[in-house]
Amino acid sequence: MADHQESSLTLPSVPASVPLARRHVLEVLAEWGLPADTETADAIRLIVSELTTNAVQHTFGRSPTFTVGLRLDRDALLRIGVTDSHPRRPRRLPAAVQQDNGRGMVIIRSLAAESGGRLSVVPTECGGKTVTVAMPWTAGVH
Asked: 77 has which bridge partners?
């Protein structure tokens, strides 16, 4: 087994790319041994949906594409990252504003925490950012 496996997919920053990103991630994870009908897969599906939706909605046309990256290190740690070219970091909105929008990062943080993972935001060299969720790899562990 290799020390790590990687996959990435770059898509246009349009709403139709969100389900494509989700499907890509679940197909890759299935190849790596994570069945689609598990709680972990459900959590990852939601994390990818929120991260990619943020990349589409909150870059205000300044990021024509986004990239979904997956990395599995030593069958122990899964990283799911979404990179866009907009410099603004995601923010939590005040509760009063969170009626319909703005809960995405709260959802992502809580899903990451529930699975023993964590969320990080790292600037990219080209002035954008990568929002990453790193979580323990639990495929094959029931």
From this structure: 73, 136
Tell me the torsion sign for CA atoms 91, 109, 5, 13.
negative
**What distance in Å separates the CA atoms of residue 103 and residue 126, rounded to the nearest whole number?**
27
Q: What is the pLDDT along the chain (142 residues), one digit of tens a residue?
A: 568 899 999 999 999 999 999 999 999 999 999 988 888 899 999 999 999 998 998 877 788 999 999 999 988 999 999 999 988 777 655 555 444 556 778 888 888 888 888 999 999 998 899 999 999 997 654 4
Alpha-carbon distance of 39 to 104, in angstroms, equals 19
Q: Which residue has the tokens 């509760």?
A: 95
85 Cβ contact list (under 8 Å, min separation 6): 59, 62, 63, 64, 65, 124, 126, 127, 128
Measured between alpha carbons, how far is 130 from 27 in angstroms, rounded to an integer? 22
The model carries a pTM of 0.86
Cα 140 from Cα 90, distance rounded (Å)? 33
Structure tokens at 20: 């494509």
